[in-house]
Amino acid sequence: MNKSKWISLAATFFGAGLSPKMPGTIGTLAAIPVWCLFFLTGPYVYMVLTFLLVIFAIFISDAYEKDQPTHDRPEIVIDEVVGFLITMTWLPFSLKHLVLGFFLFRVLDIWKPFPISYLNDKVKGGFGVVIDDVAAGLVANVVLQFLTQSGYI
């Protein structure tokens, strides 16, 4: 397999982003097994692995974009993977947190309220592909942490 195929495989998260419908949602679904594996490592290793994956996603997205004519192509879903992992950081391992985290992250990633929309529009390259999903994941995580600590979930 040549370098371009490896970059495509990573950017599309093993082809999840090649789905003809809702590639971002499919990419986020594909992140759930990664979340399960990362959760087993404990919170500190989870954070380190997620941080390393963010850096990897930036480089892979940048490399993928160099071969493509448009910014943030829909088949790039490694950014959804890292955004979802950030959403789920330091949350309990439960079905309700998984479902709420999934939907809240997807709503924020699709709706893109300020400042997520600003980052999506103004930041280019691989960093630009990933940073809006990182921001959506951070916002979703703060909301879920608040709801969890307040006893609502």
Question: In terms of topology, how is this protein built?
Answer:
Blueprint: H1 3-11, H2 23-39, H3 43-66, H4 78-87, H5 95-111, H6 116-122, H7 125-149
Overview of the molecule:
Helix content is 71%, strand content 0%. It is mostly helical. Helix 2 (23-39) crosses helix 4, helix 4 crosses helix 5 and helix 6 packs antiparallel against helix 7. It starts with a helix and ends with a helix.
Keywords:
mainly alpha, 7 helices, globular
Number of strands: 0
Q: Measured on Cα atoms, how large is the radius of gyration?
A: 15 Å
| H/E element order | HHHHHHH
Number of helices: 7
Tell me, rounded to a whole number, the average pLDDT.
95
- How far is it from the N-terminal to the C-terminal residue, by CA? 46 Å
Strand content: under 5%
> What proportion of the residues is helical, as a percent range?
over 70%
Structural class: mainly alpha
Low-pLDDT residue intervals, each spanning 5 or more residues: none
Principal-axis shape = globular
Main sheet characteristics: none
Oligomer: single chain
